[in-house]
Amino acid sequence: MVSSDRPVSLEDEVSHSMKEMIGGCCVCSDERGWAENPLVYCDGHGCSVAVHQACYGIVQVPTGPWFCRKCESQERAARVVLVFFLRV
């Protein structure tokens, strides 16, 4: 949360978001991304995984949220549990 007398600008929000995403690829540790091999950041709650498209085997860079394998399996497990409870 930002406590300030002035309203938070879009620039401030983007800057804050980018600071949270600082870090290199979890596979090769390189902090640089390129147009042909960008760094992709997991959108999982509290997850800090960042990987290069090629290092992680991502076929197509997602335009929406992307989840690493761990977060994806946790999401899948949560959906299975929810479906189970809805049927009971």
Structure description:
With 88 residues, the chain is mainly alpha-helical. It has helices spanning 10-20, 53-56, 69-87, and strands at residues 39-41, 50-52. The protein contains 3 helices and 2 strands. The protein has a two-stranded antiparallel ribbon with strand order 1-2. The protein is elongated, with a radius of gyration of 17 Å. The termini are far apart.
Structural class: mainly alpha
Number of strands: 2
Q: What is the string of SSEs from the N terminus onward?
A: HEEHH
Mean pLDDT: 75
Helix amount? 25-40%
Number of helices: 3
Low-confidence stretches: 1-20
Strand order of the largest sheet: 1-2
| Major sheet characteristics | 2 strands, antiparallel
How would you summarize the topology of this molecule?
Blueprint: H1 10-20, E1 39-41, E2 50-52, H2 53-56, H3 69-87
Antiparallel strand pairs: 1-2
How would you describe this structure in keywords?
single chain, 88 residues, 39% helix, disordered N terminus, two-stranded antiparallel ribbon
Quick description:
With 88 residues, the chain is mainly alpha-helical. It is 39% helix and 7% strand.
